[in-house]
Amino acid sequence: MPRVHSAVVRRSVIFLVLVTASVVVACGSTGATTVGATGAGTAAPGGSTGSPAVDPASGLPIVRLDDLPTEATQVVARIDAGGPFPYRQDGVTFENREGLLPDRPSGYYHEYTVPTPGSSDRGPRRIITGREGQMYWTADHYDSFAWIAR
Fold first, then answer.
1. Annotated catalytic residue: which of 5, 71, 95, 141?
2. Distance between CA 127 and CA 30 in Å, rounded?
3. Burial 106-133 (b: 16+ CB within 10 A, else e)
4. Looking at residue 19, what is its pLDDT?
5. Which of 36, 62, 99, 130 could lock 42 by a disulfide, CB 3.0 to 4.6 Å apart?
């Protein structure tokens, strides 16, 4: 049996905890809820009972764009406008080495830096875009992701 890389196992456990927390929160409330990037519960798109707490296409928790930090919404606006981007790494191919996003061909995903206040470098926050318009949020430098509902 092949050996499983410990980082993959750790990320899988984190994912399962996030999904479980999303289901528990959704079942205990009057509307569908998702676990946001900060860990706070946020209303799912539509906010009605039966709305998914997890994006069915990616299997990732959902976070609303409006619930992300202001810096993230500013980066999404720059992405929509085609730039300009302040970091030379913005727009480079994201390889999905962690395997947490849906499996796609090389070049499908691109990454953008979301500035982290107080950080002396680019910080851990990123938005990853997919060729078909998907957007994903990570606040922990690719250890976990959430699908961004716009």
1. 141
2. 30
3. eebbbbbbbbeeeeeebbebbbbbbeee
4. 44
5. 36
Q: What is 75-112 written as a DSSP string?
A: HHHHHHHT---SSTTTTPEE--TT--SPP--TTSEEEE
By CB atoms closer than 10 A (0-12, 13-18, 19+), residue 73 is: middle
pTM as predicted: 0.67
**How far apart are the C-alpha atoms of 15 and 79, rounded to whole Å?**
27
| In the chain, where the domains are located | 6-149
Q: Scan for tokens 């107080």, then name that residue.
A: 118
CATH classification for the domain delimited by 6-149, as one of 3.10.450.30, 3.30.565.10, 3.90.79.10, 3.40.50.10750: 3.10.450.30
- Strand arrangement, sheet containing 93-94: 62-64, 146-149, 135-138, 126-130, 109-113, 93-94
Q: Is 132 a catalytic site residue? A: no
Catalytic residue among 5, 71, 98, 111: 111
**pLDDT tens-digit map of 43-101:** 344 444 455 589 999 999 999 999 999 999 999 999 999 999 999 999 999 999 999 99
